[in-house]
Specification:
Elements lengths: L1 H10 L5 E12 L9 E17 L5 E5 L12 E3 L9 H13 L7 E7 L9 H16 L6 H16 L6 H8 L4 E6 L5 E5 L7 E11 L3 H19 L10 H6 L3 H25 L7 H13 L6 H12 L4 E4 L5 E9 L3 H14 L6 E4 L7 E2 L2
Parallel strand pairs: 3-5
Antiparallel strand pairs: 1-2, 1-12, 2-5, 2-6, 3-4, 6-7, 8-10, 8-11, 9-10
Bound molecules: alpha-D-galactopyranose.
The site of alpha-D-galactopyranose (GLA) has 11 residues, from helix 5.
């Protein structure tokens, strides 16, 4: 294993173990997690592997195989003051910080990180990194934390140490997914259920379309959407938008952005439940319409799409996909399309053509079947 070999080369001894945590795509339930709503993501076959060994001081020594210089060599970062960690290292250091905040006596460690989540594709490489490190420390220090605890801790690292106010979906998908299943989560009770998703049996495939773009406004806009939802909930006198039962009445008391955000969140929660109903009924071929409706709602009501995502979704459907939508936070990253296996080529060609017409570089296509959640490798 590359991470283990690199660990030996860098530190002169074996790591105590290696842990892998996957990235995710979200089938449906977008921008619902921080509204106490429902989500249905699944783990992708790409993720982060961490080879780890404990230290008997508080220093964190970090080496990423993706941060190699032109000569292919990397120098480990030595982090003694956690607050001074920068860039991607903050996701790792944040997990140590969150564990200590929760009263766990973890000390420093040597870590080698190896990742194959396509960078910038919006497939949650940061959640994968956090969960891999959290699971490693849980095992090495025998902390006895559950997978859900590890997801919550990783979210805390991202919220309070990195400073990104994300919900629980990405970390939960990485920690709790099962192969061949999507993960249904009620983000209020935090109850989860593995939902069988055998697309191949129906001759279908989820095609990930990585637009290759990342619009810089993503983080600021994410925080703004959260604020819109919180102020709308307050105005409506509910704890969270999850609690809106009469949409028409709610909309009649709101206007502007808040009105649009509420329209999206409430209908998106219904779409998650409808999609689960279809899966339970064995009607996976019918879920495409819900994917399309989710995309329109994210584009027009939640306003988190962008031209590259819209064109990918429209071209996918034109090319014969049963449905398509942006996935993840938005403003770039990836879209997903549900496609019959014998139409994949046509769908890809249609998207490449539509991108070419606009002078955009072709997106990257990644077929993805639901993969397993985080695990120890050796
Ligand atoms: C990002 C966040 C998640 C979730 C999605 C939108 O991926 O990390 O918590 O809010 O956006 O559904």
């Amino acid at each position: 294993m590359r991470a283990v070999d690199a660990f030996r080369a860098a530190f002169g001894h074996d790591p105590e173990g290696a842990w892998h945590a996957p990235g995710r795509v979200n089938l449906i339930g977008e921008h619902t997690d921080y509204n106490d709503g429902f989500v249905l993501p699944f783990a992708v076959p790409w993720g982060v592997t961490a080879a780890v060994g404990r230290r008997d001081d508080d220093t964190i020594t970090l080496l990423s195989l993706q941060a190699a210089g032109a000569d292919g060599k990397t120098t480990p970062q030595v982090i003694k003051e956690y607050e001074r960690a920068e860039g991607w290292a903050r996701y790792v250091v944040g997990v140590f910080w969150a564990l200590r905040q929760a009263g766990h006596a973890v000390r420093g460690a040597d870590l080698v990180i190896d990742g194959d989540v396509p960078p910038g594709a919006g497939l949650s490489s940061s959640a994968a990194l956090e969960v891999a490190v959290a699971m490693a420390l849980n095992d090495l220090y025998d902390l006895g934390l559950s997978r859900l605890d590890l997801a919550l801790l990783s979210q805390k690292a991202e919220n309070d140490f990195v400073g990104m106010p994300c919900g629980i979906m990405d970390q939960a998908a990485s920690a709790l997914s099962q192969e061949g299943h999507a993960l249904f989560m009620d983000c209020r009770s935090l109850a989860t259920r593995a939902v069988p998703l055998d697309l191949a049996a129906e001759g279908l495939q989820i095609l990930i379309i990585d637009t290759g773009v990342h619009h810089e406004l993503a983080d600021g806009q994410y925080a703004r959407r959260r604020r819109d939802c919180e102020s709308a909930a307050k105005r409506l006198g509910v704890e969270a938008l999850r609690d809106v039962t009469d949409l028409a009445a709610a909309l009649s008391t709101l206007d502007g952005d808040e009105r649009k955000r509420v329209q999206h969140v409430v209908t998106e929660n219904h779409r998650v439940q409808a999609l689960i109903g279809l899966l339970r009924a064995g009607a996976v071929r019918e879920i495409g319409a819900l994917l399309n409706a989710s995309h329109l709602s994210l584009r027009d009501q939640y306003e988190v799409s962008c031209p590259e995502l819209d064109v990918a979704v429209e071209a996918a459907v034109r090319g014969g996909a049963r449905g398509a939508r942006m996935t993840g936070g938005g403003f770039g990253g990836s879209a997903i399309a549900l496609v019959a296996a014998d139409r994949v080529q046509r769908v890809r060609e249609e998207i490449v053509r539509a991108y070419g017409q606009r002078g955009w570089a072709a997106p990257r296509f990644l077929p993805a079947a639901p993969a397993a959640g985080a695990r120890r490798l050796d």
